[in-house]
């Protein structure tokens, strides 16, 4: 029996889209991802600073921190074979919109600035 490698990524549903979390998750699953873990939480400024450390010192960092700590987020640990990161990025930015009730509206919302996020 061989080892199966599954790539994982963190997806965040940001504060302004949390009210659509169930619908967004349904579109994610319909697109072939597996949700390994789901957690609704309110990021502290320290957690936000850790998450966005690569942006520290940039002009957008203070407003990003204020926004991300302004309300709850939904964190999803996603898996998709060996390419979860690239598939999640593509879903947010370039992939065709999956068919189904509400899918187009939800994916458009996910693609709006500040609705969903990816990280390695």
Provide an overview of this structure.
This protein is an alpha+beta fold. The protein is built from five helices and four strands; from the N terminus they run E-H-E-H-H-E-H-H-E. It has helices at 21-30, 45-51, 61-68, 84-93, 103-111, and strands at residues 8-13, 34-41, 73-79, 116-119. Strands 2-3-1-4 form a four-stranded antiparallel β-sheet. It starts with 7 loop residues before the first strand and ends with a strand.
Helical coverage, percent range: 25-40%
Q: In sequence order, what are the helices and strands, one letter per element? A: EHEHHEHHE
- Unreliable segments (pLDDT under 50, ≥5 consecutive)? none
- Order of strands across the main sheet: 2-3-1-4
Report the radius of gyration as a whole number of Å: 15 Å
| Shape descriptor | globular
Task: Determine the N-to-C terminus distance.
Answer: 28 Å
Query: How many β-strand runs?
Result: 4
| Strand content range | 15-25%
Structural class: alpha+beta
Main β-sheet description: 4 strands, antiparallel
Mean model confidence by pLDDT: 81
Number of separate helices:
5
């Amino acid at each position: 029996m061989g080892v199966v490698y599954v790539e994982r990524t963190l997806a965040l549903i940001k504060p302004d889209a949390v009210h659509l979390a169930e619908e967004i998750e349904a579109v994610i699953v319909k697109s072939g991802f597996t949700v390994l873990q789901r957690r609704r939480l309110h990021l502290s400024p320290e957690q936000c600073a850790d998450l966005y450390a690569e942006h520290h010192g940039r002009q957008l960092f203070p407003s990003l921190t204020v926004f991300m700590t302004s309300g709850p987020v939904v964190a999803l640990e996603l898996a998709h074979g060996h390419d979860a990161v690239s598939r999640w990025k593509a879903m947010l930015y370039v992939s065709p919109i999956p068919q189904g009730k509400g899918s187009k509206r939800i994916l458009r919302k996910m693609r709006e600035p500040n609705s969903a996020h990816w990280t390695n």
